UniProtKB/TrEMBL annotation, chains A, B:
Coiled-coil features, chain-numbered ranges: none
Protein name: LacI family transcriptional regulator
All copies of domain HTH lacI-type, residue ranges: 2-56
Matching PANTHER family: HTH-TYPE TRANSCRIPTIONAL REGULATOR GALS, LACI-RELATED TRANSCRIPTIONAL REPRESSOR
Annotated source species: Dictyobacter vulcani
Length: 352, 352
DNA sequence: CTGAAAGCGCTTACAG
DNA sequence: CTGAAAGCGCTTACAG
């Protein structure tokens, strides 16, 4: 294991000078710099990041914190569940951004209480935190905000002195989806959404309502049907819906997400109905799978790479802005959404 | 930030004793231990893992290395691609196992050359490596093996002094899938598999052939059709197949994976054929989505949690077996596979 | 059983 | 521009 000591010896300088050269200090002569660089190459030296972290009291590591449930102790624990499928794609972009900035990504799993959770992060000297916390009442959110470690939340609207958030324009996306159906002649449009108080669901509900209002359509509580974010719950809810409502009182469904839409499609098929012949379905997210559903799914695209890029760049900016400007204004980043029309939506057919 | 110095002062002992108590050394008196524990609780002390890593020359971090392509510089870069969907589920189990053992998971992205790749891992003092390398010729595999850091590969059959692997019984799984179709009366059974030299594909091809042989059926090269692991390529291959083969010369398809099967189903639908009425399809992996395809997919289940558990436990055992026994025999772990019958397979119908 | 001391590999005021 | 020295927070022989 090559150390800076060996580099210094070979270059005929002190470790201090090697360190300065490495960290781009201007106070190093050209000759010294050259000799050091040669020594580094010939020895294959690379600085020990652990030692650097210790002395700098800060690592180049960004921790990923996912709180999908209240009890998930590991970062990925809930990632197999269909409702979180969307975030995976975004994580790819997140990792690329982080790598490009020469930071590492840590999945820090702590099965302990909240204060220990934060402490674990501090003891690892993480530089910053990227958090996706779907339940706004999760106590860890507030703990994170108070910990004063630079933090960017995705899809949670928490803000603080050292934290901000990025989110899609969920309201406008849902509005577009509903408007698309209205333009196709639909008047009785269901929406399946969780009954929780999360910001994502709330905004999507609001967008749905806004589109109806703009079109002068009434907002019927019977058209807003509760279902969890996952495929199975959406499937069950739709089955229940199709059985309860005889005769059927709707011609289209705005799904809370694409993965919910997949369950909805399946239920409609099983009841012997056609899509979009009998019922039109719109998803939300535009995950890759949308192209392979039967029929291919009309949906709302979230700009995942813009979300990831915005989140990471904002985070790194916060990390590297060592000057703690009191007046710093951290404005949230809201990325646009866009309707993608495929084959699961069509003209409304009159109800029986 | 509470340090061991403060704990020592409060407990009236030296830092050395605090360290011993913390690390479970027997050479600490009961009274000292008690006072130290009280001090730790009252101060909320937690050791600095960075300092520990430096002095121990080893962190409690396990790096995740995914080499899905030859050029992926980030760990997750290829995870959005359908062909790697399966590994995500396994990663969940992997993370849980790692967390339970009180290790951290690092996604180490290095966009640099191979020797720097290894060096980056060494400089971070990672304790061990979990690697999924789908291309057996990837130079990083050999570099990893030679680096002598404890490593467990998943689905690559690399072994070395400090490395071993875990894999499903791919051959037997594919054999079961094919046998299932034979029992349903199918005689002309296609298989769609990548033409690469990866161990997973090779084993699955061998299992397919073995089932045919055991049934006394000929192995027709025209029945082994090349297609990449992803949904899109499987879709395109099937479309081409259905156009080329007029009249059609097969009644069933063994897909290389579930995500390939999804593309195959879509192509069959688009050609106006029925599943399993016209063509039966079997997948491989048993991802959650199988239940939601149209029709629900018959497939081969891989025991992901057994794979994850085997991999992590083996890895940690290697890490903590500080005694480098020369005669240590690291035997690979092969987990069983199992047929899951759903609705995409049915009796063979005679070909025109 | 316990403490003083050295050391892990680096960085950074402090002098010069 | 450069080096000697101190220090980041811990662990571990070495004495006692």
């Amino acid at each position: 294991m090559v150390t800076s000591e060996q580099v210094a010896r070979l270059a005929g300088v002190s470790r201090a000078t090697v360190s300065r050269a490495l960290n781009g200090s201007p106070r190093v002569s050209a000759e010294a710099r050259k000799r050091i660089e040669e020594a580094i190459v010939s020895l294959g030296y690379e600085p020990d990041v652990v030692a650097q972290s210790l002395v700098r009291q800060r690592s180049r590591t960004i921790a990923l914190c996912l709180f999908f449930g209240n009890d998930d102790s590991t970062v990925l624990s809930r990632f197999g569940e269909t409702q979180h499928y969307f975030y995976l794609d975004m994580l790819r972009d997140v990792e690329r951004e982080i790598a490009d900035a020469h930071y590492d990504l840590l999945l820090h799993s702590s099965s302990i209480a909240q204060n220990n959770y934060i402490r674990g992060l501090q003891m690892r000297h993480v530089a910053g935190i990227l958090a996706i916390a779907l339940n706004p009442t999760d106590a860890r959110i507030q703990a994170l905000v108070e910990a004063q470690i630079p933090t960017v939340f995705i899809d949670s609207i928490s803000q603080g002195q050292n934290s901000t958030y990025v989110s899609s324009d969920n309201l406008d996306g849902s509005r577009q989806a509903t408007e698309h159906l209205i333009q196709l002649g639909h008047r009785r449009i269901m929406t399946l959404l969780p009954g929780t108080n999360g910001p994502v669901g709330s905004k999507r509900r609001a967008g749905y309502c806004q589109a109806l209002e703009q079109a002068g359509l009434p907002i019927d509580e019977r058209l807003i049907y509760p279902a969890g974010w996952n495929t199975e719950e959406a499937y069950r809810a739709t089955m229940a819906l199709l059985r309860e409502r005889q005769p059927r009182d709707f011609t289209a469904i705005v799904a809370g997400s694409d993965l919910m839409a997949i369950g909805i499609l399946r239920a409609i098929h099983e009841c012997g109905l056609h899509i979009p012949g009998d019922i039109s379905v719109v998803g939300f997210d535009d995950v890759d799978l949308c192209r392979y559903t039967e029929p291919p799914l009309t949906t709302i695209r979230q700009d995942r790479s813009a979300m990831a890029q915005g989140a990471v760049q904002q985070l790194i900016q916060m990390i590297e802005a060592d000057d703690q400007l009191e007046e710093r204004q951290l404005s949230p980043i809201i990325t646009p959404t866009q309707l993608v029309v495929r084959a699961s939506t069509g003209p409304a057919v009159p109800l029986a």
